[in-house]
Every structure is written in C-alpha cells, then in structure tokens.
Amino acid sequence: MVRARGGRSRLRARAGRAVARGEAKGRALGHGAPVRRLRALAPVVVPVLLAIADAMLVNGLELDLEVGVSMLAAAALVLRRRFPLLVFLFTLPGLYIGYIWFAPMIGLYTLAVRRPGRARLGICAVLLIAAHFFPYPITDFELTVYRENTLVLIDACVTSAAPIALGLLVRTRQELASRVEDLTRSLRREDRLLADRVKTTERARLAREMHDVVAHQVSLISLQAGAVQVSTEDPAARAGARTIRELSVRTLEELRHMVGVLRADGGEAAEAHRLAPQPDLTELPRLIEMSALDVTYEGAVAAGTSGTKTVERAAFRTVQEALTNIRKHAPGARVRVRVDPVDTVRGESSGRGEDSGRAGGSGRAEESRAAHGLRVEIRNGPPDATATVPALPGGGHGLVGLRERAQSLGGTLEARHTSDGGFVVRAEFPYGAG
C-alpha cells in the first residue's frame, strides 16, 4: 500500500509541474478575450481533470466500484466553491474506496479558503486522516504492523495538513489585499478631505480680503454721497447723490451674498446658493434707470412667464456688462436695449479674440438651434466727442465671460462693431437649457 501511494505521489508531482508550465504559457499569451475566458474556466476545470486523471491512474479504466466512486468524487469538484463542505464529504468515499488523493485534498483546500472555522477544519482533517489511514475493506487492517501503520498515519496527517495550511495562507493573503485596498481608499478619502479643507480655508481668506477691501471703499463712497445729498442745494446733484447711495447699498448687498458663496462649505453651500443674488428681467428697468445713459428699452417678454430664471439671469448679466462697457468706451452714445422671444435660436458666437480696450470683438461662429428662446440685443451708436471718457479699469474679459455663459446654456453671443461707428452685442438663449 505504501509503495503504491508513493508512486501516486510522483505522478502528482509531475502533473503539478505540467500544470505550472501550462499556467506560465497562459500568462505569456496576453490579455485577450480567449485568455480571459480560459483563466475564468481554469479554476473549475483543472481540478476536475486532475482528479479524473488521478482516478484513472490509480484504478484503471475498468468500470467497478473504485472507479465509480472516484469519478463521482472528481465530478463533485465542479461545485466546490458553492458547497465546499458537502463536496469535501462527497470526496471521502473516493479516498477510502478508490485511494484517490487529489479530489479530497482539493475539497479540503477549498473548505479552508471558503469556510475557515477551526472546529469544522479540525473535524474534516480527522475524517480525511481516517479515510486515508484505514484500508478498504476494513477487515484488511492489521493493528500489529506498527512500522507500516506509523508511516501511513504520518502520510495521512501531512496529506490533511497541507491543503488546510495552503488554504488558510491564500485566505489570509486575500484578506490582507482587501485591507490594503480599504486602507488605500481611506488614504485617498483623507487626501480629498485635506484638499477640501485647504480650499475652504483659501476661500474664507479670499472672502475676508474681498469684504475688507471692497466693502470699505464702497462704504466711503456711500458716506460721501450722503454728505453731498445733505449739503447741496442743487436738485440734480441731490438726485445724483441719492442714486450713488442706492448703488452703493446694492453693491454691498451683492458683495455680502458673494462673500457667503465663497465662505460656504458642505451643507452651507445650498443656503449660500439661496442667498446669492437672483436678478431677472424684472430688474432690467431699474438697472437701465440707474445706468446714467441715454437708453431706449424695448421689452417684449414678461419676466417669469415663459422662460426660466437661469436664462433671465443670463440676459440680465449680458445687459449689465454691455452697459458697463458703453460707459467705459462710448460715453454719451445713445443705446437701445431690446429683449424679445424667438421661436428658433439661431445666431453667431464670436470665435476670435476681443479688443481689451473696447467692449467687443468679431469673428465667425458656429450655429445652434433650439425651439423657444430669448434674444437680448444691446446696440449703441458712436460716442459723443464732447463727453469725458471715464478712467475706469478694465481687464477685457467681460464679453469672454458672457460668451462662455451663453455657450454653457446652449446659446450664442455675437459682439461686433457696426458700420456707423457703434457696437452691438446680441445674445440668444434657448429656454430648454435653463
């Protein structure tokens, strides 16, 4: 019995080396779809084939009881991952009657990987040792053959301990890999939290600086305007001072909202978003009245009746920026602001650069279409040669921002000079984008 089992050990060693060489060749083939399918099927098919080869080498091809239980034990390995304990118990008759090793060892290894309970593994190890130690039929057992029984018992203990040790090692490795992955995710999450904290700190610092610098200057303007309003006797000067004070107050309110947005973090972001200024078309007449320009307003759209707040805010900001540019670059010019609906948004968006010293630019653009939109046009004539040009700072980025806002809403913006020396800004927004 010992010699026969030693021969099977050599056969298993050669088979194991052959499998290792096959796996090395499989890794060299690449990562194609057939290779991936082969890698998925290999853990299921290879153990079954090894167990069948073991059964055929030990018991031959003649159909008898030994071959039958050995083949059933090999076939049961197909379900070893789903029912590891039942499959192991099903392979024990193959070891006891058919003297096969691969099927019960693979079953015990799978049990150690999938169900590593100490009591369960201990009982299963004892069962495998018993099936290995006692011969079939049991009447052939000779208690007095101490040397042979000792060797067989040692062989049985090693046979049961090896798959358990390998299975526990594989399971430990899998758990370590999972913990390393969890640790990596935790570190990435901590990095993101740290980056968010740095951003929040920087936004708060910018908000404080903006509030300290801009609010102080605007407050001084408001105080000086109030002093002029009280001290002057000229009605026109008093009205101008009152307008300046109103503009200062409004600027401080918008500044407070923007500072709240900058300082918002996490759950405060939604609250800050609600506090942010939400101008729409109803604010346009007031904006035009306080612009100190000769403006003709033609509004053919009732605010809030057919469009969305996002589109109306975009229209308001377009008019606001255009009037600011007119004050800086075309003082004394006559202005016409027109807001009307369009059934199909179709226009041009300037694709070239814009003049930093002039509110505009020219260029070709791409077309876009959308049903039911809003058109905003601000057209001014040539500047008045006798008017004083205010020394207002400008970065040349106003119309760039307006064009980006229009494109983000699916609309277009055109800014160009006119033949009479004036300038026109025309924007079209689809309501569906807002």
TrEMBL record:
The chain crosses the membrane at residues 40-61, 85-109, 121-138, 150-170. One of its GO terms (molecular function) is protein dimerization activity. Residues 202-265 form the Signal transduction histidine kinase subgroup 3 dimerisation and phosphoacceptor domain. The keyword Protease does not apply. It is an enzyme of class 2 (transferase). Its EC number is 2.7.13.3. The keyword Transmembrane helix applies. This is histidine kinase. It comes from Streptomyces lydicamycinicus.
